[in-house]
Design goal:
14 helices, Aspartate Aminotransferase, domain 2, Aspartate Aminotransferase, domain 1, seven-stranded mixed β-sheet, alpha/beta, binds glutamine
Length: about 375
């Protein structure tokens, strides 16, 4: 019997594809965004301790209470926002699961969802699975400014969600206080829900600050903040994220979460609660990653790549138009195969495939690896 694909247009994610190609060619993988250094010994020991203590069964659906308490306290300390531990904090199996649960909880068939391009690749399929309509607005190169007039012109009674990502993957752009005021003016007097993907909140550079959208008093009531402990503690494979939202939104998100994954990994949640109590474990990250960004840029100073500014995240966009006129997809395949360094082509984040000759490098790697990658890229 012929099996008709429900998603004929969906292929393998660019992250899986480029990681596989990097492995095949023994290339340094600056493509998929994951840290190339070890997790803290202390955190690994804590996981072992909790496993031996026997907390190895399902956690509560909404997450381990202690971890929710520590997260709630952290939001209060950093951004002055209060989240009720029982009804407004949910631990997910990675931020990706929280994004899926939030989109699925709110999008009805035909609802419109505004996203900004280049758009991180997990949002469009989740909107599609729920038969929503994706409305894309371009962040224009080279500055990737938000065009709020365009957003205002596109908002209509069918607009259900606006999805924002700050710091933004792949551009590294952060939302400013002015951007947030413009957003506030647009959503005022509407029932639009804002999903704010803030997984890179602790990687913001050059003295700039991360502004959590929920910290604006006029956004708090309609905003779902999604964060990632995998990103913060260099363990993306452990799959722990969380979702913060007012009670009426959280109740809907949990309805999806409980039937997608039920709960996240129990001993790791306990371990992360202890580790997250030590503020330096996340407050040190901006400095740590800024040094890596600057190190990589310095090592690349002899190359013909031109870097675009990045305010945050662990990504850098590079313009390779002085080197080649190949499409960005061909170019990343070529540098992976011939120069043994993998990167991500930015056109895959654009629905129309717009190719600005930009590729994304992940600089969350050891200096030695960054130096070797730069050496290989400088000869191109
Ligand atoms: N967030 C990471 C990136 O942008 C990885 C995403 C993934 O592999 N799904 O590279």
């Amino acid at each position: 019997m012929a099996n008709h694909s429900k998603f004929p247009n969906l292929g393998i994610s660019i992250f899986s594809a480029m990681s596989a190609l990097a492995q095949q060619y023994g290339a340094i993988n600056l493509a998929q965004g994951f840290p190339g250094f070890e997790v803290s010994e202390q955190l690994v020991d804590l996981v072992g301790t909790y496993m031996r203590k026997g907390v190895n069964q399902y956690s509560p659906m909404e997450g381990v209470l202690r971890l929710r308490e520590v997260i709630s306290q952290k939001q209060k300390n950093l951004y002055g926002i209060s989240y009720d531990v029982a009804t407004e904090v949910t631990i997910s199996a990675g931020a990706t699961e929280a994004v899926f649960a939030a989109i699925s909880a709110f999008v009805h068939e035909g609802d419109e969802v505004i996203c900004f391009e280049p758009v991180f690749d997990i949002y469009p399929p989740a909107i599609d699975f729920n038969k929503g309509k994706l409305i894309r607005i371009k962040l224009e190169t080279p500055h990737f400014h938000y065009d709020w007039d365009k957003v205002a012109a596109l908002v209509n009674p069918k607009t259900k969600l606006i999805i924002l990502n700050t710091p933004h993957n792949p551009t590294g752009k952060i939302l400013t206080a002015i951007d947030i005021e413009k957003l506030v003016a647009i959503v005022k007097n509407t029932s639009i829900v804002v999903i704010s993907d803030e997984v890179y909140e602790h990687m913001v550079f050059d003295g700039k600050s991360h502004l959590s959208l929920a910290s604006h008093p006029q956004l708090y009531d309609r905003t779902v903040v999604i964060a990632s402990l995998g990103k913060v503690f260099h363990c993306t494979g452990w799959r722990i994220g969380y979702c913060l939202a007012p009670k009426y939104l959280t109740a809907e998100i949990r309805k999806v979460h409980q039937f997608v994954t039920f709960s996240a990994n129990t001993p790791i949640q306990y371990a992360m609660a202890d580790f997250l109590e030590q503020q330096e474990n996340y407050l040190s990250l901006s400095k740590f990653f800024q040094q890596k960004r600057d190190f990589f840029i310095a090592q690349m100073s002899g190359s013909a790549f031109k870097f675009l500014p990045t305010d945050g995240s662990y990504f850098l966009l590079a313009d390779y138009s002085a080197i080649s006129q190949m499409s960005d997809l061909e170019f990343v395949k070529w540098i992976t195969q011939k120069h043994a360094v993998a990167a991500i082509p930015v056109s895959v984040f654009n629905a129309d495939g717009q190719d600005d000759k930009l590729i994304r490098f992940c600089f969350a790697k050891k200096e030695q690896e960054l130096a070797e990658a730069a050496k290989r890229l400088c000869v191109i």
